[in-house]
Amino acid sequence: MVQPPDEELLSTCFQEVTGAPPTSITPFHPHASEKRRYRLTNGSTTMVGVANSSRAENDAFVALARHFASYNLRVPLVYSYKPTQGVYLEQDLGETTLLNYLHSERTRSGEAFPASVEEAYKKALRALPRFQIEAADSLDFSLCLGAYTSFSAILLHDLKSFAHELVRRLLPSYPIDDLTPDFHQLVSYLDHAQSMYFLYRDFQSRNIMLVDDEPYFIDFQSGLKGPLQYDVISLLYQSSAKIPGDHRQSLAETYLEAVAAHIKCERDDFFRHYPAFIVSRMLQVLGVYGRQGLGSNKEYFTKSIPAAIRTLDTELRSPLLGIKLERLCACSNALLTSIMA
Question: Which CATH architecture has domain 98-340?
């Protein structure tokens, strides 16, 4: 049977919710995700319609959105979900991401990290423990997309993706199998960090919307049970944001203050594995950048590669890393040479 087009399905959902059909349906510019997103409008009523062929991903997003909303967390409300048809309607949060805001304020003020932007980041980081700890306390983790996959297994997959999607494309003759021992060593080292929290997994400024100066959170459907540090690093070490180092540290301290309202978290324990988590996040995003940028010719991701490689190389050589990853150091050096050539 032929599936009706996205617009027809979403228009039907919109009419069921509002009592009237949309007068306009405008597609969003496609990005990394395979989801197709549209803005549906009738008068002053607007909603975002999503069409996605992955039933598992849709189920996870809708279930998590409803769970987080029950804790009054700022996530898009889901108005309608048709699981067998792969479409749902959600709250329209506008166009302003935290990254958009950072760039516009940076241009306006001429400052590397304006105070207005820092305050927006602080709001996001103060909200994060509510997802990770408060809402996770009653969360049925079987609802998550990676419900039966450990953080360690996901991390190892990410590291292999780095080798195949980025290194192989930039350095076709590089012996990527040589990286395997360091991958396993890194995963084993990070496995000692406590991992019983909700791991948002892609907590970065393009997934944080600003509505009336308040952060709203999207794209958490890949979340699973994991450690606290990874999400903080995902936000603070986003290559395209270019947050200055002193502000990164200050914002991490703001986050820890927020965590203290929920659990006892020793500062030394939190930061013990922090540098290695930075390495793991850089390897993860570089795998994505390789696939989406070099593989699919998406300019945003290609342009983000050099900064991420530089961050990876710096962190691999940090005396605070707590683990020797000589093979990865050699690889990052080769990658640096390739992007500078």
Answer: Alpha-Beta Complex (3.90)
